[in-house]
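Name: Nitroreductase family deazaflavin-dependent oxidoreductase
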Amino acid sequence: MPSLLQVVRSVVAPLTRTRAFRTVGPVVLPPVERFLARVSGGRWQVSAILVPSLVLHTTGARSGEPRSTYLMYTPDGHGRAIVAGTSFARDRHPAWTYNLLAHPDASITVRGHDMRVRATPVEPGDEREAAWDLIQAQWPGYRAYERESGRVVRLFRLQPVA
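Structure predicted for Nitroreductase family deazaflavin-dependent oxidoreductase:
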């Protein structure tokens, strides 16, 4: 029998793939996430209600300035996280993916806890398909963003470092 969370995800997931959500989401969600993080000391995220979520802290690829991005992640069962640069199905890769390619050493905040990580691109082939299978199991239909964007979405594995 499916859990309540699985039922809610199956109802909400199709809504997140609508044109309206792809238009409104990138404008509304980031400021809401920043506000909630500020008032909760980084322990709460809107997206974390439905899926595991983190704040990715990177170094700007061109600017060298610190950057923070709120993302869904998928645990891979080995203490690592997989993040997908879907960018609401936009036709360009999100800036944070360029940051990780230029500076793979980053950090994440999960429920108020900080951790250093090293990002590795998930290469095409069996490993990439397995990563998408994990992501799809968590959020059904998420790969549709890749098809709708017209580009190959960048996937990264975030490995904790000591």
